[in-house]
Here is the input.
Amino acid sequence: MHDLLAPHRHDPNPDPPSADPAFTLTRPDGIEYDVTPSALSALPQTSVSDCYIVSTGHGISGPFTFTGVLLIDLLAAYLDEDLAWDRVEVISGDGFGTRLTSDELRQPGRAGKILLACVIDGEPMTRTQGLVRLIVPSETDDALRQVKWVSQIRVKREA
Here is the structure.
């Protein structure tokens, strides 16, 4: 069976798949929340500098400073402290996605912390730029982990 969230090349998609910027967060126990950009802006904000957008077919642009919510902070806001989980799937409205481990979120590498960005260089992102965009600072060469137009975040635990 082909794993759609395993790192893979994909065709660039210059147009937003939907006008709706909200996404669904699904907890390991199946409870779902609709999360809007305004809900994200109510959470603690973090900026990560010297980030690049690496887009399949479009090359590299940047460096940028992205501001948004650390993914680990979003999870803390929506998950009970005792709810076990070990990975997070972040999926775009066009079906592209990536998988992150709890270790990556809790102990990020030297490149920086993983966040859901809504601001680029001090300006709110447009829907075309992603509006809500997963930024994985350690991703520098193939755009296999940066997800724009986030539409689903699924928090999972191994059975």
Q: What stands out?
A: The mean pLDDT is 84. The helical segments are 37-41, 71-78, 102-106. The CA atoms of residues 110 and 121 lie 21 Å apart.
